[in-house]
Design goal:
By secondary structure, this protein is α/β, with parallel strands linked by helices. It is built from 18 helices and 13 strands.
């Protein structure tokens, strides 16, 4: 049994590693190959190119590397068509994976896409291409399943692995003890992102926000998890121009950092869902290339960009975007949540209800759906 996969960034690597473990329960002798990160490789996955090569943010940034990305996809496609696996699973990375899935499906390889692109929010016309590319769409959220059912694309709602993994009850004291953080200190977590472009656009702004907050509340402390050595070097280069900030840079441990904090300032993305599951008040920011921003404004149909707000159908966390994401604006929003302890209680039930709705043993359900597709095709 050979199972091919492609994950394009850290969040996909997490999902892929958990899925591999669940599939191994059904196929103990299976081999896994394609493109994946360190967590997938730790499960025995063979990555033909480093996952970092696919981690590109923004429309303009993608255009700058389009030849390289197309070359990687073409090489992998040719390899998998020449020696077909039993099934291909594309994990997120829709701009890379959907084209690959379409070619593989046309060549007779069953295809699954795990994690829906945000077709319900923007570029809804993509649903037709998705229907042509995949034999099954695995979605993390119930509103996504309803969208695909309406468009007659085979779909299974599996829930979110993070909701299974993270306890329903917040555990701030345990996280602070594990990180050696003062139990009484006001702590703000800074998560500008795991990709180089995110640090480029948000890193300086987040550090300037920390300096602004320090001027308003001198006892505040900051924690910043670096996704890897390259991101740490980027962050430390920015910190060199801001000596004296009470800020600790940690290697990874983003979940512990968020759990230990009183407020999280973070880039929009999967981390916002994780902060919600950890029951942390948050302020969400995002910046991209100006042309990318203009294109997004034309294409986006959703009222919110973050998962917590979309899942709730209303604003649970402020979204401060692009030119509005100044140190003063971000700092004021963080300070309001830092000083308003009752806000956590008001948010707590909303967060808990959403968390419970997503606890579905996602990796197990995804593996079961993939196994059924394999059996149907081999029958």
């Amino acid at each position: 049994m050979r199972i091919a996969m492609v994950a394009g960034e850290a969040s996909g690597d997490i999902l892929g590693s958990s899925l591999i473990r669940a599939l191994k329960q059904r196929y103990p002798d299976a081999s896994f190959e394609g493109i994946g990160g360190p967590l997938m490789c730790a499960e025995g996955f063979v990555s033909h190119v480093p996952m970092e090569r696919l981690s590109v943010m923004g429309l303009i940034e993608v255009l700058g590397r389009i030849r390289e990305l197309l070359g990687v996809r073409r090489s992998l496609r040719d390899r998998l068509i020449a020696d077909p696996p039993e099934i291909f699973v594309g994990i997120d990375a829709p701009d890379f994976n959907l084209g690959l899935e379409k070619d593989l499906k046309a060549a007779g390889v069953p295809t699954v896409h795990y994690v829906s692109p945000s077709v319900w929010a923007w570029r809804q016309s993509r649903v037709e291409k998705i229907g042509q590319s995949v034999d099954l769409m695995l979605v993390l959220f119930p509103f996504e399943a309803r969208f695909y059912e309406e468009h007659q694309v085979p779909v299974a709602f599996v829930g979110h692995p993070l909701a299974d993994e993270i306890p329903l009850d917040a555990r701030q004291a345990e996280a602070r003890e594990a990180l050696g953080v003062d139990a009484q200190a006001p702590v703000v977590a800074l998560l500008p992102g795991s990709r180089g472009a995110e640090i480029k656009y948000l890193g300086r702004t987040f550090l300037d926000t920390a300096a602004w907050l320090l001027s308003k509340q001198p006892d505040v402390q900051f924690l910043l998890p670096a996704a890897n050595e390259t991101r740490r070097a980027q962050i430390e280069a920015l910190l060199a121009a801001r000596p004296g900030l009470p800020l600790r840079v940690l290697d990874g441990q983003s979940r512990q950092v968020m759990a230990a904090s009183d407020v999280v300032l973070l880039a929009s993305g999967t981390a916002t869902l994780e902060a919600m599951l950890l029951k942390r008040p948050m302020v969400i920011a995002y910046k991209v290339n100006f042309i990318t921003w203009l294109l997004a404004k034309l294409l986006v149909k959703s009222a919110f960009i973050s998962l917590p707000n979309n899942l709730a159908g209303r604003e649970l966390a402020p979204e401060i975007l692009q030119y509005k994401a100044t140190p003063e604006a971000l700092g004021q929003a963080v300070l309001e949540r830092l000083r308003n302890r009752s806000l956590l209680e008001r948010l707590g039930q909303d967060y808990r209800d959403i968390h419970a709705s997503l606890r579905r043993d996602a990796s197990e359900r995804a593996a079961e759906a993939i196994s059924r597709l394999i059996q149907d095709r081999s029958a």
